Amino acid sequence: xxxxxxxxxxxxxxxxxxxxxxxxxxxxxxxxxxxxxxxxxxxxxxxxxxxxxxxxxxxxxxxxxxxxxxxxxxxxxxxxxxxxxxxxxxxxxxxxxxxxxxxxxxxxxxxxxxxxxxxxxxxxxxxxxxxxxxxxxxxxxxxxxxxxxxxxxxxxxxxxxxxxxxxxxxxxxxxxxxxxxxxxxxxxxxxxxxxxxxxxxxxxxxxxxxxxxxxxxxxxxxxxxxxxxxxxxxxxxxxxxxxxxxxxxxxxxxxxxxxxxxxxxxxxxxxxxxxxxxxxxxxxxxxxxxxxxxxxxxxxxxxxxxxxxxxxxxxxxxxxxxxxxxxxxxxxxxxxxxxxxxxxxxxxxxxxxxxxxxxxxxxxxxxxxx
Amino acid sequence: xxxxxxxxxxxxxxxxxxxxxxxxxxxxxxxxxxxxxxxxxxxxxxxxxxxxxxxxxxxxxxxxxxxxxxxxxxxxxxxxxxxxxxx
Lengths: 370, 87
Ligand SMILES: [Zn+2]
What we know:
The complex is a heterodimer of chains A (370) and B (87).
Chain A: E1 2-4, H1 12-17, E2 24-30, E3 45-50, E4 64-67, E5 71-75, E6 81-86, E7 101-107, E8 114-119, E9 123-128, E10 133-138, E11 152-157, E12 166-171, E13 175-180, E14 185-190, E15 203-209, E16 216-221, E17 225-230, E18 237-241, H2 247-252, E19 259-264, E20 268-273, E21 278-282, E22 297-302, E23 306-312, E24 319-325, E25 340-346, E26 355-359, E27 363-369
Antiparallel strand pairs in A: 1-4, 2-3, 2-27, 4-5, 5-6, 6-7, 8-9, 9-10, 10-11, 12-13, 13-14, 14-15, 16-17, 17-18, 19-20, 20-21, 22-23, 23-24, 24-25, 26-27
Chain B: E1 5-10, E2 15-17, E3 22-26, E4 32-36, H1 37-41, E5 46-48, E6 55-59, H2 76-82
Parallel strand pairs in B: 1-6
Antiparallel strand pairs in B: 2-3, 3-4, 5-6
The complex binds zinc ion (ZN).
């Protein structure tokens, strides 16, 4: 899952917004078997725990928290990127022989200024300010986009591919989508379920245009499906690939309200409307879909089978960070761990104006200005 | 039992580790569901995750499993390993 904070907004403007630097804190909780929470160890954390942060980590909010299967990548407005977690396949963009796993965030190649990043199960996609697209990691289903028989790479450029002005990159378990400023979509990786459009190919080993039928404004990848929102108004939404939970049927009866953000879990779709409500469809055996009464939501971060959101009280303007869904690894932040079903759990972290949230495979991240 | 089945996954979507004779598939916790080829041959169809309570049901045709070509001394596993699977 790739959590693009603040929708598609680029990183540049955040830079200038954040002139006077206050103290900041990054918390993480959940699954940590490979050090993906950057806590300095390999134990799960059941409540929000301060991350181990290298001194050169910017104190401004990250613009993307991208969480793969067992690794996490942070992108900052400065173009700096940091990764933690499993690096046995070079997915943290460092040589695995030297760094098989990173239990604290480590900088990714300082030779580049990165503009976009996404993380899949065991790979990372990075795009620099020159528009060059790089991949790092491993995968048997074309995840690297480097061509047939290419199953691993250490920060390698996808040559002969330069779509004009990429504005977003997202990855699911084994596929990746690029969105361009003109509303075109490119993709590569696993395509057996049709998540990369027609013709269905089990492995799409090089980037290809994904025919959606309309110019796209927002998109995300589920485990083995893609969700795409049109640019025209009223917006419509298409799902490509595995639709076991009949999300497409539900979308057909969706009211068409204005969409602030759309994110996919492994088996669900979450629409944040500008009205502050969430519409969600998909797998719901562990409380993955939020209670219908939620309102005042300003941000969502959707993980594999759980989610975080920032909720603002209409009258008091008081903000809190809430979680719900599958929480077996403590990723819902409830002391003692466990699922949050049919309700939400409020984290015991103050939520000031400047707060960012992220979620991955049973992992949760909260960045706050303190 | 069906309650605890997280998903049903076609064997074509799983990864086969020839060295270990093991089929795996990503679990939403970050670890992987696992089931031995031998267990599939024995009719077992539930793959478990070593790190959490979730399980998946593997969808497969027994006849499509990679066949044991040569049985060594006690090397059933090793033989299975040698058989390449078309992913
Ligand atoms: Zn698991």
